[in-house]
Fold:
Amino acid sequence: MAFNGSGVFERLYSWVTDRDNGTKILASRMDADTDGIVAGINSIVNGTQPFIAPVRASFGTAASPSHSFTDDPDTGMYRPAANELAFSEGGVDRGRFYGRKNILGTVSQAAGVPTGSIIERGSNANGDFARFADGTQICTRTITVNTAIATASGGVFTTSSTASATHAASFVAFPVVSVQMERPAATGFDIMAVLESANTTVTTFRFARIASDGTARDLTARIIAIGRWF
Structure:
């Protein structure tokens, strides 16, 4: 047999042992030993003998993946970086194998093709943000302003100046923004937050109400901006 019960290849005879024991080199013994080697190689090639140790391959590239096919050498699987598994098709990177390790992380892209994680979340002094591999970005922020609402503007009264809120992350184009008012205690329901403008980095707004209120009080707005990071 070419392999023992543990799956390890074993030669049938040892020429050194035969020499020490005075055993002559016989064609039959050489044939039996060589046949065992051939049988062992064939068993590995045709898959009847499994590997008992890890099979290690080169890292490969998208153009030349380490695991490919006989008539299609630029399509297959390779390792682009440490702890990453990628697939190529026609020599082009077609994506990563995603799991618990890289679903959440840093999103990235190259020429519009995602190259990083699926979802990225973060927060800073300007609020929270979530980025998605398809380019979508959502920023949220809660901001409180101490101000009165006593400046006449048409049929309503507004704050004398605009309030501004910097987004937690920049957008590549103007986002869609919603500003919602959190009603303060001891006031009616006629106070609202009015969007003034929004660009890729900042949203500006005012507070307004039907009746004038010259008392400065804490007014809170919740801002949601939805757009794209690439």
Observations:
- Residues 1-56 form one domain.
